[in-house]
Design a protein that fits this description.
Layout: H1 14-33, H2 37-52, H3 56-60, H4 64-76
C-alpha cells in the first residue's frame, strides 16, 4: 500500500519545484530504460504536469538533456499519433 500524503503538505515552489521536476524526469527515464512503459507513462505525466507549472526562466534551469528527453518521448511514444500498444496481436 502506498504511503498516504500529508494533508498539510505545501505545494512546491522555486528550487524545490525544479528539483522535483528533474527527479521525476530522471525516474521516468530509468523506468523507460527498464522497459516498464506503464510506470514510465505515469511518471512522465506527473513530470509534465509539474513542468507546465514552471515559468520560462524556471524551465531554463531544467537541464537541456532532460527537457529534450521529455519532449521527444512525449511526442514520439506517448503522443496522439503513436501506434497503439498491442495493435498487431
Amino acid at each position: 500500500m502506498p504511503p498516504k500524503k500529508k494533508a498539510n503538505a505545501k505545494p512546491l515552489v522555486g528550487a524545490a519545484l525544479i528539483k522535483e521536476v528533474n527527479r521525476r524526469i530522471r525516474l521516468a527515464r530509468s523506468l523507460w530504460d527498464a522497459h516498464r512503459n506503464a510506470a514510465c507513462r505515469g511518471e512522465r505525466e506527473k513530470a509534465i504536469a509539474l513542468y507546465e507549472t514552471l515559468s520560462k526562466e524556471e524551465r531554463e534551469k531544467v537541464p537541456q538533456e532532460l527537457r529534450v528527453w521529455l519532449r521527444y518521448r512525449s511526442e514520439k511514444y506517448f503522443g496522439e499519433g503513436r501506434t497503439p500498444p498491442g495493435g498487431g496481436h
